[in-house]
Amino acid sequence: MNLPFIDRIWSVRGSLTLDPFQSPAEAFGKLDGLFRAEGTSHKVEGDTLTFSKKDPLAQDKMATFNGGMLRVVEGGEGPELVYDLRSSALLFCFVLPFFFLGIAWLIKDSRTPAYVFAGLFTVLYVVGRILEPRLIKSVFRKRLSGETLPEGEVPLAQ
Amino acid sequence: MDGVRVGKRVIGADSPVTIGWENLPKVEGGPVKQFVFTYFQPAVLFALIAFWMYAPDSIAKASTAVGIGVGFKVLLLGLEWVNPRYSSWRLTWKELVTDLFYVGISYTLVKYAGKHIGSDAIVGAVQHLLDWEKFKWFIDMPLLFQAFLISFIFDFGQYWMHRGMHNWYPLWLTHSVHHFITQLNINKGAVGNPVELFLIGLGLGGFFDFLPRAALLAGAIGLAVGTYQHINVRFNTPRWWRFLFNTTEHHSLHHSQDYEASRSNYAGTYIFIDRIFGTCVDGEAELLGMEGGRRMSIREQMTYPFTEAYKTTKAVIQRRLHPVAVPAE
């Protein structure tokens, strides 16, 4: 379904410039560990990688996203990794303020806490919508540049 | 895995645990950090007790208690950031959203249910039937003792409700969802099926007539002790504290993937209740959860007790209707 404006609520898109002459297979190879986490299935077809996640672990670097597509395309300054990810967590957080406003409307006893939580989730959505795209871009960049995991951190790959 | 023998039980045969205080890691860092994370817990407890005993009536109100509670949790979130117990329990944006969703449900829908069909309603109904005036002597006792009694009576009830949840299948169905959490953070205590949150909120304290100030003081003791059950902070908790009170260490064992470890440390505030009834195990665990530590989605957390109850009931009925023939010897 193509929803160009509404889907920004739950979709995260971005791109990263790759090293010159880097093939799709090489780029996806560097990101491979991310897609071997528990509950993740993925498929590589030429220049395109698609993945989906079911109940990812809390510390999975991509836990916020439950599916998406990554492509290696030829950009103006060499090859680029273009990604399009979807997040039911972002959508859930977007809906929560309306849910708590509904509670405030239905249950008069709970009006004050319901308004407080509606406000809290509005703030959390804005934070998440800004923070999560930055974090995932940073994770992709680090993996593509060959940075190793911090000391003591173990990969989630099984 | 061999596990460790604790009394008649073997703890840690299914999943790694650390048993015994002497085997637990200490706070790492300079003298200031060591000092803060050694004396933080008692300092907050005594400060809150002093506040609720001596604060003037104009500020000793329920709204102040709510404000202190929220401020304290924000402070503890900061401590999780500064001095985490395990990096594998780091709070992420998604975990925070999930946890706060349950906190929101607790403060609205569950509280509403408690008021209208839970302990508030039951206490109201029963108080009309009996002569509760006879219990008025409670309010002549020292304030701190009243507060201790309120929190102890509530925790004693919670201990048996919690132990019941681990031993009687229908109650376990509601509680099992909470045991699917895979890490401890400040708000993880609220994560679970709402039916359980309703059941755990049932208490007997409302039957007795205490001074309102004593109830606020009891709430403060619960806040300053019980909050540490679910927290990702490394403390050098004093020996006397961990003997009397529940700690993160105790509760991490309770949430361990190890079955025997999970059947220990049931009290919410006073771990000495577990010591009295022989269910206390001193130690800690990092690997938490059920079914190998899989993370349950909110959708499954909402439906799990009901779908599991349906599956079990169906299996029982099928066994009754179509018993498997046992070959003769």
Give a structural overview:
The complex is a heterodimer of chains A (158) and B (329). Chain A is an alpha+beta fold and 158 residues long. Chain A has one domain (11-144): Alpha-D-Glucose-1,6-Bisphosphate, Chain A, domain 4. Chain A contains three helices and five strands. Chain A has helices at 24-31, 88-106, 111-144, and strands at 11-17, 40-45, 48-53, 67-75, 78-86. Chain A has a five-stranded antiparallel β-sheet with strand order 1-5-4-3-2, covered by helices on one side. In chain A, β2 and β3 (48-53) form a beta hairpin. The longest helix of chain A has 34 residues, at 111-144. The two termini of chain A are 33 Å apart. Residues 154-158 of chain A have low confidence and may be disordered. Chain B has helices at residues 31-54, 62-82, 93-116, 119-129, 143-165, 169-176, 194-200, 212-226, 239-244, 248-254, 259-262, 272-277, 298-321; strands spanning 4-6, 9-11, 18-19, 283-284. Chain B has one domain. The radius of gyration of chain B is 21 Å and the shape is globular. The mean pLDDT of chain B is 90. By secondary structure, chain B is mostly helical. Helices cover 55% and strands 3% of the residues of chain B. Chain B is built from 13 helices and four strands. In chain B, the strands form two sheets. In chain B, strands 1-2 form a two-stranded antiparallel sheet. Chain B starts with a strand and ends in an 8-residue tail after the last helix. At the A-B interface, α2 and α3 of A face α3 of B.
